[in-house]
């Protein structure tokens, strides 16, 4: 019976393909086929080689794979710092989901620093000069004047966006979360609780994501013939700024506030407590993103959960499809968030 070893040979060196072939009693080409073209082998041979690979801890050389297939198996992702005052690390959670899915597909994520502020091709050009990158995943694609999609498309570099481009000219494949559907669902939920004076606290106009979430609130309010005039305020995605911005809505008698993010919702919590009021009991509050802080707040924050695992899977699927067929028509996918009811706007039977 073969003796199990680590990824190093008994002499201390790395386990090689030839060593695996010798242990399994097959040719080196058969081992290579088991890794790269398993359909070429008989099932019993494939099982024997794979078992030997696992027992010996053999790992194929990435450099050799790149030379053979022309693929580096590397996908680039630019990481930007979270803005000050933000409590919802959505992109951190997305990156975790993306990394898991990429790994399952046999690829690796290569992270690089992307500068704070507006979107830029800085970093992308440097990475392409220094490494063989198969493609890129982009986030923060809603910024106006984002040059990355056109720059990558011009150079024939595959990419997929987490998020829509909100300009009239759409470029490339993307996966996004339907923010309007989410805030519409939040309004419907509040109406089932008996609310009619439902306000919206969003981001400044001109943000594609923010305007989309505002549209869902407006759509649901119009559907129920509820007034929206004087029931909308805006704030940067900062807790203290939101605390100040929501005060006129509370002064006007809002009994519920739909916030465009969990960060803004937390600002509502602080504003209510300054008045001696309790979120959920005196004024209902909903957020968006289901960030880690949402469940830990007291009372727990009702919010919209983004399907980040599904977003990660779809991003990888679209990118791999684009790599294999660069001339295929672009594919765009819109996924729905789900309402997570907690005590700040409890379920009707709670």
UniProtKB/TrEMBL annotation:
<feature type="domain" description="HTH lacI-type">
    <location>
        <begin position="15"/>
        <end position="69"/>
    </location>
</feature>
<keyword id="KW-0238">DNA-binding</keyword>
<dbReference type="InterPro" id="IPR000843">
    <property type="entry name" value="HTH_LacI"/>
</dbReference>
<dbReference type="InterPro" id="IPR046335">
    <property type="entry name" value="LacI/GalR-like_sensor"/>
</dbReference>
<dbReference type="Pfam" id="PF13377">
    <property type="entry name" value="Peripla_BP_3"/>
</dbReference>
<protein>
    <submittedName>
        <fullName>DNA-binding LacI/PurR family transcriptional regulator</fullName>
    </submittedName>
</protein>
<dbReference type="GO" id="GO:0003677">
    <property type="term" value="F:DNA binding"/>
</dbReference>
<keyword id="KW-0804">Transcription</keyword>
<dbReference type="Pfam" id="PF00356">
    <property type="entry name" value="LacI"/>
</dbReference>
<keyword id="KW-0805">Transcription regulation</keyword>
<dbReference type="InterPro" id="IPR010982">
    <property type="entry name" value="Lambda_DNA-bd_dom_sf"/>
</dbReference>
<dbReference type="InterPro" id="IPR028082">
    <property type="entry name" value="Peripla_BP_I"/>
</dbReference>
């Amino acid at each position: 019976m073969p003796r199990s070893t680590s990824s190093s040979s008994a002499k201390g060196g790395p386990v090689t393909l030839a060593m695996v072939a010798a242990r399994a009693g097959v040719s080196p080409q058969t081992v290579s086929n088991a890794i790269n073209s398993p359909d070429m082998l008989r099932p019993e041979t494939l099982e024997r080689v794979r078992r030997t690979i696992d027992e010996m801890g053999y790992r194929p050389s990435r450099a050799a794979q790149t030379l053979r297939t022309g693929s580096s198996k590397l996908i680039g992702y630019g990481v930007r710092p979270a803005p000050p005052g933000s409590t919802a690390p959505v992109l951190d959670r997305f990156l975790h989901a993306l990394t898991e899915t990429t790994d399952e597909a046999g690829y690796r994520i290569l992270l690089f620093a992307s500068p704070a502020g507006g979107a830029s091709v800085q970093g992308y050009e440097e990475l392409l000069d220094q490494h063989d990158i198969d493609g890129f995943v982009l986030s923060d694609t809603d910024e106006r004047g984002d040059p990355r999609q056109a720059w990558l498309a011009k150079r024939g570099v595959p990419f997929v966006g987490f998020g829509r481009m909100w300009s009239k000219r759409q470029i490339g494949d993307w996966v996004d979360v339907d923010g309007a559907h989410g805030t519409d669902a939040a309004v419907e939920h509040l109406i089932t609780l008996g609310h009619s004076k439902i306000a919206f606290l969003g981001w400044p106009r001109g943000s594609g994501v923010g305007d989309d979430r505002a549209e869902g609130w407006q759509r649901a309010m119009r559907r129920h013939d509820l007034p929206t005039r004087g029931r909308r305020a805006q704030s940067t995605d900062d807790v203290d700024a939101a605390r100040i911005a929501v005060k006129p809505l509370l002064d006007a008698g809002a009994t519920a506030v739909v916030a465009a993010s969990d960060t803004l919702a937390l600002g509502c919590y602080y504003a209510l407590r300054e008045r001696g009021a309790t979120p959920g009991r005196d004024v209902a509050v909903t957020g968006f993103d289901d960030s880690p802080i949402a469940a830990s707040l007291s009372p727990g924050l009702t919010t919209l959960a983004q399907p980040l695992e599904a977003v990660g899977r779809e991003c990888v699927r679209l990118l791999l499809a684009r790599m294999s067929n660069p001339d295929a028509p672009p594919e765009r996918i819109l996924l729905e968030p789900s309402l997570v009811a907690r005590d700040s706007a409890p379920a009707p039977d709670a």
